[in-house]
Amino acid sequence: MKTSSLVPLLLLALIVPECQAFLPPSNSPRGRIGGLFSQPFTDGRNSGDNGVPPSDDIGHLQAWDGFEGPTLLASIIRKNDTDAPSGLRGGGDVVKGTQATLSSTAKKKVANSFKSKEVKKEEELLHQLKNMPIQRVVVPNSTVLPNEVIQLAANRAGVVGHPLQSTSIQSFAKSLKEWYIRKGYILHSVTGATLQSETGTAIITVQEPAVSKDPVGITFCKEMVVDEETGNLLTFRQYKDKHQNRRTLGFDKITKADLNTTFVPTAGHTRPNRIASALGLSPGNPFQWDGIRWQQIASSGIFAQVLRATPQPMQDGTVQLHILATEAPTRHLEYGLGKSLYTGSWEGELDFEHINLLGGGESLGLSVRRGTKDAEPSIRLSFTDSKFGLGGGYDLEVFSDFIGDQPEEMQEGELPPDYDHDSILDRKGATVRLRNPICSRIVRNSVASGSLERTATKTGLHETIGSTTLAVGPFVKRLPYDARSSIDAKCSLGTRLFAASSTTEEANALLPPLKLKPYTSATATTRQIFPLLASFGPGGRPLILALKHSITTATPNLPRHEAKAQGIAHNIRGSSLNGRVASALTGTTELRVPIDIPVVQIRQDTNVVFFGDWLFAAKDSQSSFRRKSCVGVGVRKSVQGIPLKYDLCYSSDDGKFQSAFGLGADFDF
Question: Is 623 left (phi over 0), alpha (psi -120 to 50) or beta?
Answer without folding.
Answer: beta
